[in-house]
Design goal:
Blueprint (H helix, E strand, L loop, with lengths): L1 H13 L1 H18 L6 E3 L2 E4 L1 H69 L6 E9 L2 E8 L13 E2 L3 H9 L1 E4 L11 H10 L4 H5 L7 E8 L5 E9 L7 H8 L3 H10 L14
Antiparallel strand pairs: 1-2, 3-4, 3-8, 4-5, 6-7, 7-8
Helix pairs in contact: 2-3
């Protein structure tokens, strides 16, 4: 019984604006029609002033629920203002985070450009860095002397496919003298790659850089757990050796690990494309 009364009171206060409006309408009708002078013979009373009872009841209802309606409106206005303020703060924080991530990525790409220069890479080579996210690879850095090779491609890359998947699983993978992508309409090139580690033919056909020299090098974090892979590649069949790249990486590996560990902007870069 107590719960029913409580629920009824809650419902009445929830509908306070409607009840207040109805009460004011009833008061207006009573005033216009002189219902406040209405009397009846009931309960042994010859002239029970029912009209006045309805009038004063309407006054009480109008006052109680009118005040409640005004109070609720003030609370709603304050809540809306607070929500708007919080939304603006969140938006400002998101913009600040996006700026920090973009600045970090620009700095990272600048660092990769120095590595490209240190390796004497030409317009036929590029370096890409992929970090794992949601059991996929996401591109967090890419650079090349050739701006066409620095373009992004696909939005995600399976963690098991192709040379990247093989390098990720084994720690490193090197290959050179791959067949020409133009030979036999690309079949020879695809068969060679797919024979080493499975990959879709459509993926190979849509690559904007069909390289013939690869070195995949896995980067572990400070806790020694796998974090990302570096992909060195060239359009030339034998532009570099594994030993040469490892030698050049020796002095810059720690800063690379730091950049990769700190790069948490993968979520914000989800819509950016990537390639093999």
């Amino acid at each position: 019984m107590r719960n029913r009364i409580k629920n009824l009171i809650d419902w009445l206060f929830d509908k306070s604006s409607y009840i207040a409006s109805i009460s004011f309408v009833v008061l207006t009708i009573i005033d216009i029609s002189s219902l406040n002078e209405w009397t009846i013979n009931a309960f042994g009373i010859p002239k029970l002033e029912l009209g006045k009872f309805l009038y004063y009841t309407s006054v009480v209802f109008a006052l109680i629920f009118g005040v409640k309606a005004i109070s609720s409106q003030v609370e709603n206005t304050q809540l809306e203002s607070k929500n708007k303020e919080q939304s603006e703060k969140i938006r400002d924080l998101e913009n600040s985070l996006s700026e920090v991530v973009n600045e970090t990525n620009e700095l990272f790409n600048s660092y990769l450009k120095l590595l490209v220069k240190n390796l004497n890479f030409t317009h036929n080579e590029r370096i890409s860095v992929y970090k794992t996210y949601n059991n996929e690879f996401r591109l967090i850095g890419r650079t090349s002397v050739n701006p066409n090779l620095a373009k992004r491609g696909r939005t995600s890359y399976p963690i098991t496919d192709g040379f990247i998947g093989k390098g990720w699983a084994e720690g490193e993978f090197f290959i050179q003298e791959l067949p020409s992508p133009k030979a036999s309409n690309g079949r020879t090139y695809y068969n060679k790659i797919n024979g080493i580690n499975q990959i879709s033919r459509s993926v190979i056909d849509n690559l904007n850089m069909k390289s013939r020299n690869f070195f995949i090098y896995r980067i572990n974090g400070f806790d020694n757990s796998p974090k990302a892979v570096l992909v060195f590649e060239s359009l030339e069949p034998s532009a570099f050796t594994k030993e040469h790249i490892i030698e050049k990486l020796a002095g810059v590996k720690q800063p690379l690990v730091m950049f990769i560990e700190k790069n948490n902007g993968v979520k914000l870069l989800e819509n950016n494309a990537l390639d093999l």
